[in-house]
Amino acid sequence: MTTPIRAVRPRARPLASRAAFGFGTGVALGVALGSLAWLADQLPYPWPALIPANAIGAWLGLGFLLGASAKTVPTGALRGLIGLLSAVAAYYALISIFAVGFRLIGASHAATTWGAVAVIAGPVFGAAGGAWRHWEGDGRSFAVGLLAASLIAEGIAFGELRTGDAAGIFYLVEIAIGLLIPALLLRNRERLIGYVATVTLAIAFGIAIEPVTALVRAAADRF
């Protein structure tokens, strides 16, 4: 009589190893985004529009992506925080190495200001990514609407006066991506709430994004 062969399950990686890999990925992607943002700033137009690493949507999208890769919503918030802080650190580290004059003098203050923004935005959008992966129903729809609305609001607010140039085309593409996100990321029964959340938040963000961005930039430029 033969003994039945049991399927051998692959051993799960230790918790510490999984955590190190997850947060290491967040640091690596953050550094990559921050480095691309710095590179885009060094290039002549229209390259900054063709490498839109300085777009608000790119940074918030990274936070959402890192949150979606996490095992829990709180861990997603932490990964979003680490990713965006890493991006800010990489961007200003490159400025400290290569910049001269006033930009170099003000780098530490600007890094602190944008780091404070990352401390807020990173956990919010990281948690939203985690909620999209782990939650069901209205909470999941709202999380997706948060990301979609951010892209739409940026595209409308900063692209409204640009027509035909590379930046204007980028903002139109960003709006289109924002409009598609609920359809692509949500189930049929969740899409109505997702689009309601998207429209509502896009209106609120559209009103706030220009004055808030101007305020943060003004604070970052003081030294």
Explain what the structure shows:
By secondary structure, the protein is an all-alpha fold. The chain has one domain. 80% of the residues lie in helices and 0% in strands. The chain contains 9 helices and no strands. α6 (107-134) runs antiparallel to α7 (138-159) and α7 (138-159) packs antiparallel against α8. The chain is globular and about 55 Å long. The model has no long low-confidence stretch (mean pLDDT 89).
Key terms:
mainly alpha, globular, 223 residues
List the topology elements.
Layout: H1 15-42, H2 47-50, H3 56-68, H4 73-98, H5 102-105, H6 107-134, H7 138-159, H8 166-185, H9 188-220
Number of discrete domains: 1
Strand content: under 5%
What count of helical segments does DSSP give?
Answer: 9
Helix and strand composition category: mainly alpha
Rg estimate, integer Å: 20 Å
Task: Offer a quick outline of the entry.
The chain has one domain (23-220). Helix content is 80%, strand content 0%. It is built from 9 helices and no strands.
